[in-house]
Structures are given as C-alpha cells and as structure tokens.
C-alpha cells in the first residue's frame, strides 16, 4: 500500500476493471475528472476540497453518474460539500440530510453514502425533492 497526494487521475484509465478507489486526504476538488470505470463500486473522497460552490458539485455528481455507473458506496466526509456539525458549528443534521437527498438524487444506485446505509425512505424523498435540496447559504 502506497500513500501519494494526488492532483491528477490521468493514469487511472489503464485500470478499467478497478472496483475500489480510495482517494482520501488529497487536493482533489470539484474539477475532479475520472476516466470511465464501469466496475468501480466503492469510491472514497474523504478530506479533499470538494464543495457546493455554484453548480460545480452538481457537475461533479453528474460526471460520477456517467463514468462510474456501478457506484454503490461513496464517501465525501471531511469536504465542505458534506455538511458536518462536528467540523462546522453552523451545520446541523438537517443540512446533512438535505445533502444526502441531493447526492442520492444524482447517484441513484448508491447503497451507502458516507457512513450510513441509504434507506428506502431517503431514496423516495431524493426522487421527489432531491433536485431542490442543494445546501446553499446567501452571502
């Protein structure tokens, strides 16, 4: 096992049968571009620089839906995009739940998001209102 700080994922295209990818603790942001990895089912992007600024997270989630169609487990803990009351006092469980609905609306095959299993009720709510759940605060 090697630990390297990643700024580019260009070399991943040669690993088309990759099933799990852990990219924690890097400098990856909303401009993250993965090659098509049709067998990837687990992706962790904990403690990177992913945020909900403007529409960039929507673009990232749309990209993930396209290039990793088998994705079932995604973790974004420790990113600004993932509202966490332990990291930011201004965030609460409602902010986190709205974030979950938004992500689940975009990535409909997820079975786990962060550390929690996706419930049937969450999936139904994400289908109905997920598109409107992006967590934004006025400046």
Automatic annotation (TrEMBL):
Domain of life per record: Eukaryota
Query: What Gene Ontology terms for biological process does this UniProt record contain?
Result: melanocyte differentiation
Q: What is this protein called?
A: LRMDA protein
Source organism of the structure: Brachypodius melanocephalos
């Amino acid at each position: 096992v090697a630990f390297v700080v990643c700024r580019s994922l260009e070399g991943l295209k040669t690993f088309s049968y990759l099933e799990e990818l852990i990219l924690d603790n890097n400098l990856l942001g909303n401009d993250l571009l993965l090659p098509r990895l049709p067998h990837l089912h687990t992706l962790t992007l904990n403690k990177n620089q992913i945020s909900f600024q403007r529409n960039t997270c929507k673009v990232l989630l749309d990209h993930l839906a396209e290039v990793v169609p088998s994705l079932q487990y995604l973790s974004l803990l420790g990113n600004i995009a993932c509202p966490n009351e332990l990291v930011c006092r201004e965030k609460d469980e409602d902010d986190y739940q709205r974030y979950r609905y938004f992500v689940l609306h975009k990535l409909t095959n997820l079975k786990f998001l962060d550390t929690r299993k996706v419930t049937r009720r969450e999936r139904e709510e994400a289908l109905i209102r997920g598109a409107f759940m992006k967590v934004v605060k006025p400046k």
